[in-house]
Amino acid sequence: QRKRAEEELKKHRDHLEELVGDRTKDVEDAQKALVNLLEDLTLSMQDLESANKKLQELDRLKSMFIASMSHELRTPLNSIIGFTGIILQGMTGEITAEQRDQLQRVYGSAKHLLSLISDVIDISKVEAGKFEVYVEKFSLDGVIREAVSNLTPEITRKGLDLEISLPQDMQMTSDRKRLLQCVLNFLSNAVKFTEKGGIRIAVQEVEEMIEISVEDTGIGIKEADVPKLFGSFVRLDSAIRTITLGTGLGLYLTKKIATDMLEGSVFVESRYGEGSRFGMRISKGNA
């Protein structure tokens, strides 16, 4: 019995030694795999650092390009617009009806190109995080009136009704210039795509936020096209598309400014053939 017991113990001991050997090998394999993994991670980190340096360099070059384009392209365009305007005003002498028509085409095209360049530069700055916010206290009424003043000639030419509804002396603390840019984009689109009827600008407080909306009786937007509206370079098909100029960047830039800079949101409601309502909600600030 003792001999059998010793044999059994030997078998168990041998089996345990085999198990220990197997486990030891597994641990050694795992250690080797871990070492290999750490080496791969080190190489990956080095690759990431190298890629990050390249991206930083590309970002620097992009910023240089934006600054260069801002100066190099806008400066000659402003000269074209300025001197063409002088000629159209008759300050250099009388011009024929045909010359006036051609010069107005040059003037309109130059203004359109300048608008496109400015929008691209603004979007590039926003996406690069280089768009600075200048906060100040101001009257919202003044912003709305300034936006309307910019588009009054076109509103009058089309014979559109204009209604403005906003609380008196509403003060805000935000970036006035960028807020004006958003309101102008909404209002100019409303004027552009409205041939009859009117436009209503409304301001109200909603859930401790300021809501600014522009409603029109224009051509409206198809339901399937609504999700595309705030994308970049989007111009939807419409009956008057061929006679309306646009960069396809206005709404995209407006959304970027409203969400990334003014910490707000944008919205749209539309019925095809009946009209649209675009708007934004932003904080009133510490006014």
Task: Describe the SSE topology.
Layout: H1 2-88, H2 97-127, E1 136-139, H3 140-158, E2 161-165, E3 171-174, H4 176-192, E4 198-206, E5 209-216, H5 250-261, E6 265-271, E7 275-283
Parallel strand pairs: 2-4
Antiparallel strand pairs: 1-3, 4-5, 5-7, 6-7
Helix pairs in contact: 1-2, 2-5, 3-4, 4-5
Q: Roughly how much helix do the residues carry, as a percent range? A: 55-70%
Contiguous low-pLDDT stretches (5 residues minimum) are none
Give the C-alpha Rg.
32 Å
**Count of helical segments?**
5
Q: Give the neighbour order of strands across the main sheet.
A: 2-4-5-7-6
SSE string = HHEHEEHEEHEE
Strand residue content:
15-25%
> What's the pLDDT, averaged over the residues?
84
Main sheet overview: 5 strands, mixed
Global shape: elongated
Instruction: Please report the total strand number as a whole number.
Output: 7
What would you call the structural class? alpha+beta
C-alpha end-to-end distance: 98 Å
